[in-house]
Amino acid sequence: MSATSVSVFVSSPDTHSERKFDLHTTIGQLKTRLEHITGITPTSQKLVLSRTEDGQQIRVLDDDSRPLGFYSPADFQTIQVVDLNPMGPAGMYSDVSQVEKFELSDEQYAKRDESLLKFKQANKFGRFADEHQQASAPAASTASYPDIKVGARCEVESEEEGLQKRGTVRFFGSTAFGKGTGLWVGVEYDEPMGKNDGSVQGHRYFTCPTNHGAFVRPERVTVGDFPPITLIDEDEEI
């Protein structure tokens, strides 16, 4: 029995996720759906089917009337969504070069009465803890969280109600940042919900697309069979 759907990675300048599509969907219909994922309008999309492992181009999906299955995509290949109009709506929101930034020098920050720095100093947290506190603090152990393993699928507790933050565990252990503050779990999110690409303060812990990486406390991580949120799932929501 032949397959009627395919699971592929969708990659654009600002997004990267795994999706499942019906092979009978025309390229024109696919572009309309991809607009909701990438923010790129259908008329500005160029779709390229590529090998995921090295980005080698296989073919261009250039006929809007053809079904996706005509191009014989295989599971876990990548559909690259090229933006032919980078100054359009998608590019407009991703270009931050013209955004005025608020900057505060270290000296100005140190003078603030209400800040995280002042709180840590007052309570002797982190690098402000005395030697006796650091020596007596119990060492955290990954053995306390036997389910959290690199490569495991997981869901991260979110402060926003109804938001599902799913991904894959890419790192678990102590870090150079927040030294002495315990264990951190490095997660590669399925969607660009993170804050980094697996590197923090010049130290790389793992590699993932920009804004897909995040470090969270193990208490916020639940390991289990959490498949990526697919386009089919989204279409079922109203």
From TrEMBL:
All copies of domain CAP-Gly, residue ranges: 182-217
Cellular component GO terms, alphabetical: cell cortex; cytosol; microtubule plus-end; nucleus
Subcellular location: Cytoplasm
Pfam families: CAP_GLY, Ubiquitin_2
Domain Ubiquitin-like: 6-88
One GO MF term: alpha-tubulin binding
Main location: cytoplasm
Cited InterPro entries: CAP-Gly_dom_sf, CAP-Gly_domain, TBCB_Ubl, Ubiquitin-like_dom, Ubiquitin-like_domsf
Keyword annotations: Chaperone, Cytoplasm
GO biological process: cytoplasmic microtubule organization; post-chaperonin tubulin folding pathway; tubulin complex assembly
Superkingdom of this protein's organism: Eukaryota
CDD domains with a match to the protein in the record: Ubl_TBCB (cd01789)
PANTHER family reported for this sequence: DYNACTIN 1-RELATED MICROTUBULE-BINDING, TUBULIN-FOLDING COFACTOR B
Similarity field: Belongs to the TBCB family.
Protein known as: CAP-Gly domain-containing protein
UniProt source species: Dacryopinax primogenitus (strain DJM 731) (Brown rot fungus)
